[in-house]
Structure formats: structure tokens, C-alpha cells
Amino acid sequence: MHPNPAFHWEDRDAMRQLVAEIGFGALFAGTPDGPRVAHVPMVWLDEATLAMHIARGNGIARHLDGATALFSVIGPDGYVSPDWYGLGSSEVPTWNYVAVELEGTMRRMDRDELVAQVDRLSAEQEGRLAPKAPWTRAKMDPKKFDAMLNAIVGFRLEVTAWRGTLKLGQNKPEAARLGAADGLEASGRRGIAHWMRSLA
Q1: Alpha helices in 62-127 (DSSP H)
Q2: Residue burial 163-192, b: 16+ Cβ < 10 Å; e: rest
Q3: How far from chain centre, in Å, is Cα 1?
Q4: CA 37 to chain centre
Q5: Taking the CB of residue 90, how many other CB atoms lie within 10 A of it?
Q6: Mind listing the pLDDT tens digit for each residue in 135-147?
Q7: Has residue 200 got a pLDDT over 90?
Q8: What span, in angstroms and rounded, lies between the C-alpha atoms of 69 and 57?
Q9: Domains of the chain by range and CATH?
Q10: 192 and which of 76, 84, 108, 186 could share a cystine (Cβ 3.0–4.6 Å)?
Q11: Taking Cα atoms as reference points, which of 194, 188, 168, 180 lies closest to residue 86?
Q12: Mean pLDDT of all residues in 111-131
């Protein structure tokens, strides 16, 4: 989380929604081999529990059950030129962004829970591809699905701490923030520009 309190984000419902919309993040944990990270897709099981799977061969996988871990999701972001503020020569470049960190305890899932996680993940993502007919594992050879399932390990992250950052230029006058949003949009960073305008 950014150290400036002006950028702290406390709205858990909004954070949960952003994490669900992105559906992918970086899972960090300390291991006997040193700090490790896995980049994984996820789904929410309930308001404070994530489910994810990791390649069995990933070095972090054997150390996760019972471990404290941090799941980080980065939303829209973009470089902000000082020129866009229109405030003179005393401004400096910065980077605006939206981010969520979820800390908690990892619990390994059994095979049935893993199957349910894979089904739920594919259903959520396939639903975003409409009008395409959704893919389901019913289209797979069951033996192939079992073989693929053997190559991954499922985990739940029971979230105990939420940390969010909305660094959107809240420390600038509204006109300066909106000017920077216009600059970001013109440079192709529409996502972060939208978030910056949403404060108005």
C-alpha cells in the first residue's frame, strides 16, 4: 500500500470487484528456498476466500499449505507527465495506479475442490466471451482432464488483511487531476484516466 494516506483504499466491496474483474495476480510467499512468487488465475469462493491453482512443479507449491501469503492484483496504471497538470515547473513525473493486496493463510484443496475451482474459473471467464458458446470440461476426454488435473495443485487463500491503493492524483487540484486524466487517455491509458475522472 502507498504510504500516503490520501491514496489508501478501504472499500472492500470495490476491491473484491476489481480482483474479480481482473481474475489474475501474483501470489508471494516466503519459502525455505527464499521468497517466491507464482502468477495465477483466481476466483472468489466467498467474501473473504480466494481459490486458485498452481502448477505442481512450481517451487512455491510445496510450501504453501498453512503458510501466510500475499496475493497482489494490479489494476489500471499509467505514467503521468508533469506537463499535464498545468501547474507550472514545480511538478514532477509520477505513476498513477490502482492496486489490491490480500494477505492470509493458504489451505490446500482436495481433488473435488480443485475440480470445482477449475470449473468455476472457466465458467466465469467463458462467460465474458459471449456470444461465444462456452467451453466446459465436458468437451475434454476425461482421461486427458485427469492427467491435466494431476499437474496442478489447488489452494484457498483465507484473507485476513486487505490493503488497497488508489493513486489517482487526489493530492492535486481537480482541474490538474482532470488535465492529467486527459493526457493519460490521449496516450492510450484509458483505464486509469477513467478511474481518475470517477473522483470528480
Answers
A1: 111-127
A2: bbbbbbbeebeeebbbbbbebbbeeebeeb
A3: 14
A4: 14
A5: 7
A6: 999 999 999 999 9
A7: no
A8: 18
A9: 5-193 (2.30.110.10)
A10: 76
A11: 180
A12: 96
Unique residue bearing C-alpha cell 481433488: 111
In this structure, the chain runs to a length of: 200
Alpha carbons 200 and 195: distance in angstroms, whole number: 10
Using 50, 70 and 90 to split pLDDT, how confident is the model at 1?
A: confident
Beta bridge partners of 36: 29
Reading the block at residue 69, the C-alpha cell is 501469503
User: Which of 183, 122, 114, 192 lies closest to 151 in space, CA to CA?
Assistant: 114
What is the model's pTM? Answer: 0.93
Q: What CA–CA distance (Å, rounded) separates 33 from 87? A: 49
Provide the total of helices (H) and of strands (E) in the chain, helices listed first. Answer: 5, 7
Q: Please tell me the predicted confidence (pLDDT) of residue 151.
A: 96
Q: Which grid coordinates are listed for 195? A: 478511474
Task: Match 483505464 to its residue by C-alpha cell.
Answer: 191
Sequential DSSP letters for 153-182? EEEEEEEEEEEEEEESSTTS-HHHHHHHHH
Task: Give the pLDDT confidence of 71-86 residue by residue, as tens digits.
Answer: 999 999 999 999 999 9
Average pLDDT value for residue range 120-138: 95
